[in-house]
Amino acid sequence: MEPTTCEALRLGIDIGGTAIKYGVVDTATGNLASPIAQLPTPNPATPDAVAGALRKLLAEVERWDAALPPDAAAGVAFPAIMRHGTAHSAANISDEWIGMDVNELLGQALGRPVNTINDADAAGLAEASRGAGRGQDGTVLVLTLGTGIGSALVVDGALVPNLELGHLEMGGEKAEARTSAVARERDGLDWTGYAARLQEYLAHVEFLFSPELVILGGGISVRHEEFLPHLSLRTPVVPAQLHNSAGVVGAALAAA
Ligand code: BGC
C-alpha cells in the first residue's frame, strides 16, 4: 500500500561548500519531519557531479518512505545569486554553473520540480521566521559565516533576495576573503583577532542597513561565546538557533 502523503511535507536540500544536507520539512510548522542527513559535496562541484550526488540522495530519501506529495517541488538552497532558477554567480563553486538553469538540471536528477533559492536567503528566511528572529519585526539581517559570507535581509517577514554582502569591498578586499570562517582558519587567527575583523565588517554593514537585529549563522556560530562578547555594536547581535538545519528548512519553506 502507498504511504499516505502529507500535503505540507517538502524535501529541503542545502548545497554547501563541503556537504549537501537534506531532510523532509513540515512546511505548515517549519519543523523537521525527518533527521537531517548529509553527503559530501563533490569536488569539484560541477553541475554533472552535483546532479549525480542528488540522484544518490534521492535513493536514500526513497528508503525513508517519507510520505512526500509525489509532484510537490523540492527546495534547494544553492550558493549563488539565483533568479528564476538560473545561477548568476559562482563565488565558491564551479564557474560552469553560471547561466545554467539549475531548477531544470536538478529537477531532472530528482524526478520532481525543483525551486532553487540562494543558500543564505534560505537560511535567513528560516532563522528570521522560525529561529533567532522569531517575533522580531522590522529589518532582520542574517549573515552566515562559512566558506564565504552569505547574507539575507528580511523586512517584516519578507525576504529581499540575493543580497551579496559577503562581496562588499573593504580595504581593497572582498569582506568574505577576510572575515569568513574559512578565512579565520586560513589566517590562523585566534578568537580575539577574528572578532576584530568581524567588528569592522559588522560596524560597516550596521551603518549601511540599520537593522533591528543581526543573526550570525554558519558552523562557526556554535562557538559564539568565543567572539560575540568582543563585539560592540548598537544593534543586538545573536547566534543562529537552527544550526545545520536552517538551509534545509528555508529551502523547503520557499518551495511550499
Ligand atoms: C556567495 C553567496 C553565498 C555565500 C554563502 C558567497 O560567496 O556569493 O551567493 O550565499 O557565499 O555560501
UniProtKB/TrEMBL annotation:
<comment type="similarity">
    <text>Belongs to the ROK (NagC/XylR) family.</text>
</comment>
<keyword id="KW-0808">Transferase</keyword>
<protein>
    <submittedName>
        <fullName>Polyphosphate glucokinase</fullName>
    </submittedName>
</protein>
<keyword id="KW-0418">Kinase</keyword>
<dbReference type="GO" id="GO:0016301">
    <property type="term" value="F:kinase activity"/>
</dbReference>
<dbReference type="InterPro" id="IPR000600">
    <property type="entry name" value="ROK"/>
</dbReference>
<dbReference type="InterPro" id="IPR043129">
    <property type="entry name" value="ATPase_NBD"/>
</dbReference>
<dbReference type="Pfam" id="PF00480">
    <property type="entry name" value="ROK"/>
</dbReference>
